[in-house]
Amino acid sequence: MINSKQLLVKRGFDLLLGFALLPFLVIPVVLLVVLATVDTRCFGWFAQERVGQHGRLFRMFKIRTLRVEPHALGDLDASASSFGRFLRRYKLDELPQLFNVLFGQMSFVGPRPDVPGFADALKGADRMILKVKPGITGPASLKYQHEAQLLAQQAQPEVYNREVIWADKVKINKAYVETYRFSLDLRLLLKSIFS
After folding, report:
1. For the packed helices 4-40 and 82-89, what is the interaxial angle rounded to 10 degrees?
2. Is 91 helix (H, G, I), strand (E, B) or coil?
3. What is the helix (H) or strand (E) element at residue 188, kind and residue range?
4. Distance between CA atoms of 169 and 143, rounded to whole angstroms?
5. CA 111 to CA 163: how far, in whole Å?
6. Where are the domains positioned within the chain?
7. Is the pLDDT at 78 greater than 80, yes or no?
8. Residue 80 contacts by C-beta under 8 Å, 6 or more apart in sequence?
């Protein structure tokens, strides 16, 4: 099980890597936000409430990819502009989460932060997932990197998400917390970059 010393090392690495990447990512993020603003006709910087470490809510930053209209789980690409689909395909819409990492709300690696109604509803031993900060990438997000396409194939995407995908993500994320090693974070980070 991850301990307080490992959490401290993890945070130190996040700060080191975050500040190293900041000068290289600020201008591309600003440019992508401007392009997303023009493309979606709404401000291109998007913040959504998510569940963080210890179940605390925070605002996760993204670049807007969806038009402001109702959309359903499993059909998000239909609401996305072509530029938005490009951003989502290459995960460029996630770049603003570097600021969440620097603010201490997220880590580079960990369970992905969920909207309220999932992680905050965990019971018993499953709540161990909340011991760590949510991550930009993690073991479950790597397994389900094509989650949107998988959900689009389901007759009832919301049911499938809650009963199949979410249950599996909980198992994967529990194993991550239970068997945590800093070297695991490095492997997951490299795997994310090259996948």
Report:
1. 160
2. coil
3. helix 182-193
4. 9
5. 18
6. 4-193
7. no
8. 65, 66, 67, 88
How does pLDDT run across 96-111, given as a tens digit for each residue? Answer: 999 999 999 999 999 9
Residue 47: enclosing H or E segment and its boundaries? Answer: strand 45-51
What are the pLDDT digits (tens) for 32-62?
999 999 999 999 999 999 999 999 999 999 9
pLDDT at 73 over 70: no
What's the rounded Cα separation, in Å, for the pair 94 and 91?
6
The region, left, alpha or beta by phi > 0 then psi within -120 to 50, assigned to residue 104 is: left
Quote the CA–CA distance of 113 and 105 in Å, as a whole number: 10
Distance CA 61, CA 175 (A): 27
What type of residue sits at position 146? H
